[in-house]
Every structure is written in C-alpha cells, then in structure tokens.
Amino acid sequence: MSTGFKVLSLTDRAADRIKAIMAEADRPIAGLRVGVRNGGCAGMSYTMEYAEAVKPGEDVVEDRGVRVFVDPKAVLFLLGTEMDFTTNKLASQFVFNNPNQTSACGCGESVAITPVDADRMPARA
C-alpha cells in the first residue's frame, strides 16, 4: 500500500547501519519493519524487526538503498518522521525524530505520540 505521502525518511547514518545489520543476518531479509506499540511510562514505544516480505497494507518506503515496511497501524503516528542512527560514549542507537512526538520518558525508552489527523491530510496521489 502506498499513501502517496513520505511516511518515514532515513539519514545516511541510519541507512548505512541498517545495511550493515541486514548484511549480517542469518537469513534473507527484504527490509526493516517499523511500527509503534502501546507501552512504557510515556505510553508508546517504537518497534523494529527484520522483514522477510511485505505484509498486506504496509507502506513500503525506499530511501538511500534501504527498504522499510511501515505497519499500517503506525502510519499516522510516524508521518514525517526521520530515522537516524547516533553513537556517543555510552550508546549506539536508532533515533526517531518524529514531529508527532509530544513527550518522552526520562529513560528514553518510550514516547507520547499524537497521531496525524487523517481528515487534514492531502488527497492521495
């Protein structure tokens, strides 16, 4: 499925890290599946997993040589998000720069996200 909107984009660092992880996988991987789930002290958390194939209803984002499959339940929460990969002295991690995120917990494991109002989205291409 394609909404005609760019749900998610990747930085060069995120794309490079995803390519490296996929190259080390022990089975064929078609891409990375991204979504959100309820949980954590702020209410939601991001999910990522290997994807062997696209599932019905998923948006497929191809950016910087990487395929990302977006869970249809997550599209309105992720619309306009940039996925990055950061490294500092204590951690290396994927970071979601999400314009729909309204707050985050102190530990950084969960976030509060307000979904995009579907009635305010432009018509699909």
UniProtKB/TrEMBL annotation:
Family: Belongs to the HesB/IscA family.
The protein, known as: Iron-sulfur cluster assembly accessory protein
Lineage per the UniProt record: Bacteria, Pseudomonadati, Pseudomonadota, Alphaproteobacteria, Hyphomicrobiales
PANTHER family, per the entry: IRON-SULFUR CLUSTER ASSEMBLY 1 HOMOLOG, MITOCHONDRIAL, IRON-SULFUR CLUSTER ASSEMBLY PROTEIN
Record-annotated Core domain positions: 8-109
NCBIfam families reported for this sequence: iron-sulfur cluster assembly accessory protein
Source organism of the structure: Methylobacterium longum
Stored Pfam families: Fe-S_biosyn
InterPro entries given in the database record: ATAP (IPR016092), ATAP_core_dom (IPR000361), Fe-S_cluster_asmbl/transfer (IPR050322), HesB-like_dom_sf (IPR035903)
